[in-house]
Each structure stands twice: as C-alpha cells, then as structure tokens.
User: What shape does this take?
Amino acid sequence: MSKQNQVTLEKIVSLCKRRGLVYPSAEIYGGINGVYDFGHLGTLIKRNIRNAWLKSLQKSFEDILFFEGSLLAPSPVWEASGHVQNFSDPMVDCLNCKHRFRADELDLKKPCPNCGQTKWTEVRQFNLMFQTNVGAIQDKSSIAYLRPETAQAIFINFKNIISTNRVKIPFGVSQIGKAFRNEITPKQFLFRSREFEQMEIEWFCNPENAINDFNLWCKARKEFYASLGLNMNKIRLREHGKDELAHYSISCTDVEYEFPFGWKEIEGIANRGNYDLTQHSKHSGKDLGVFDEETKQSYIPHVIECSVGSDRLFLTILCDAYTEDLIDSEERIVLKLSPEIAPIKAAFLPLVKKLNEPMYKIYQDIRLLGYEIEFDESGSIGKRYRRQDEIGTPLCFTYDFESINDNCVTVRHRDTTNQERISIDKIKEYLKNSLK
Ligand code: GAP
Assistant: This one.
C-alpha cells in the first residue's frame, strides 16, 4: 500500500538542509539573500548533473569543444553584447513599506502584497549585472562586470577557438560555469538566485541551416530530460512570444517543468542569429566572419544556444524525485533519483556492529572501483534505510548473521524496498548492471 503526498518547496528546502545538500550562504552571519552553498551530497549531485549534461551533448552532435571563460569581463564587452543597455528588469517600490518588487510580476492597481497600501513609485529599469572596478584606480575605464551569462566569453574568443582547433562550421562550444545576476526578487530557493551555474552550448552554424539545427537541438534537449528519468508529463516546450524575446534572440523555445509553484522555464533554446558575433566584430574592429572553402561563401555564423541553470535543474530533479509513501504502515520520504544522478550509488550496512569487520572489507573492495558508496554502521537498520532513502541511494547491501554461513548479502531496492539475496562474489557485477 502506498500513498502519494504532494511535494512542496518547503519540503524540498527542509530535506536539503536536514541532509546537508544545500545551505543558505553565510548563515552564521545572518545569510545573504539569493546565494547558496552546496554540501557534500549536494556537490555530488551537481557533479552528476554536469556529467550527464556533457554526456548528452556528446551523444547529440559531433564536434563539441570545451571552454572555460573568465567570470569578469571589462565594460566594452557588455556594451557590445547589449547587456549594459538592455539587461534589466522593471522595478517598483511600495511608497509605504519600501518593499521592492519586479513590476512585471505585479498588478500595480492591486494593493502591495506586503503592507496592503496602493502607493507606488514610478517603474524604473534596474540593470541586473554586478558592477566592479578592476585595479587600484576606480574610474570609468576600470569598470568591469561579473558575467550574467557564460556565453559572451565564447563569442569574444570565437577567432581564437576556430584558429586553434580543427573544426569547421557547424560546431559547438560548451561551457559550465558561474553566472551572476542581481535579481530584484530572488525567490523559490535555487530557482532564482543571484549566483548560479549555467551549462551552455553555443552551436555555430551556416545561416541557411539555423532553423533546421534549432529544431534538432530542441529534440535533443527533450531527450536529455527523458534520460534523467524526469516525469515527461511535467516537461513541455514553449515558444516565446515576440514580446518575451531577449534583446539578442530571433526566436526562443523554453523547456518548462511543472514545479510545485507552476510551469517554469528550466532551459532556454535560442536562435541568437549572428547578433553576438556581429556586435563584437563592430565594437572590437576584428572580423569574426568565416570563409567556407567548399561553398566559397563568406558569412558570420549563426548561433543556436541551449542554456540551462544547473542549480535550477538540481531543484527540478529534487522536486521530481521527492516522494512520500507508506511502507508497512510507516511513512517514509524517498528521493527516486536516477542512479546516474544519485549522490551515493550504494550503502554497505552491517546488520549490527558486531558484523562491521567483514562488511567493511567488502565496502573497501568496492570503493576502490571508484563508485561513490557509503559504509554506515550507526543506528538501527531501519533508520539507516530511511536515511539512504531520503538521499536517494538506489541500493543497500546488508551483511547479517546468515552471511557468515552462506557468503551472501541482502540487496534492498530503494523504490520498492524489495529485498533479495545475492552472493558476495556477485556484488560488483550486480552494481555494474544496476547503475547502467
Ligand atoms: N545565455 C542565455 C541565458 O543566459 P537565460 O534564459 O537568461 O538565458 C538561461 O538563462 C538559464 O539559466 C535559465 O533557463 C535558468 O535555468 C538559468 N537561470 C537564469 N537566471 C537564473 C537565476 N537567477 N537563478 C538560477 N538559474 C537561473
């Protein structure tokens, strides 16, 4: 008998704190709004998300290069990219309680959600980039910004990349790294934070193939979410209306997920046309066009971009995996993560402390194969199973008094809690097959 309960953001936040996945940043100093730290298990999940993303790119297309750009770039880069002029959200303040809101998320005819008054300031544009100065002299020439998207570093290196790698159009450049946005209202935990990580692929193609390649990428990205084991009834692709497009986009399709707080974007697939390379050509004075030897064509490549936040995807995966059910009339919380994403692949549990030694030997033997596994000896076996369920460990191996005689252990499966007995000699093979 099993009962499904509704997942809420509060439950996810609480699980993340309780099990050390995510902590509010600078908590002992009162915290910093919209910034988070990842603990041991959270870091492992993030690493698995990155690896799954990289694997999915390699599966989708040939000729994908890696790149790691700097986080800081001087003002001219962001003037050329249009971020200084356009990367802003409309902001409004309540004149009574001084609370600040995003104007596009409020009906200004309605009372302030915080104090109930209806007196607003004018709507102003608020630029989301974090500005700083580089070097000892603080004047206009030293202004730099923390990147609000990882992509620009790829565009400004386009000539370097194409001249130092054996690639021809079409090819992609992928990058995983931090981005920073001074969001007016960071909210919904990791969904909208001020410091976050993006996983982006910039696909450079012949303008004539841009629409076709855009469609291929949309298909590939949907397959990626299916490969993570997400409930595909909660995934949809939604095309942007003209009024929603970012300043650099010709067209854009969002991959959306149905969160406990509604359908929201998890990834943007954008046809950026030749906007970025043209802008950087103009502003830097360097030609960022290509010459195709085969067709004898000169052109500025078009760019198809797929951009997903790994923290937002982390939240998506947790919301999707979080399950409450009843096992033998006892409530439990279980994270039904795919084995690829689960932070710990298997736990090795002696039934009682007296049996630690033989189980510890088995654990050490498997650990050397490179699996992320845990040995846990403390607390009742039931409590240890519950902990592993909550952190999404697919398999628990238990060594009991029978093991001494039959050279077998019990394997317990997270989702069903079904148990079976296997020979200790078969554990490696069993793990390998289960984690495929
Ligand atoms: N280079 C394109 C770009 O940055 P975007 O739609 O602004 O496009 C892409 O961002 C993805 O980055 C989003 O789909 C989301 O997953 C993630 N993202 C954007 N802002 C975020 C924030 N404040 N907190 C967490 N993730 C964010």
About this structure: Residues 149, 151, 181, 183, 192-193, 196, 198, 200, 265-268, 305, 307-309, 311-312 surround glycyl-adenosine-5'-phosphate (CB under 6 Å). The chain has three domains: 3-73+148-318, 91-127, 344-434. The first helix runs from residue 9 to 18.
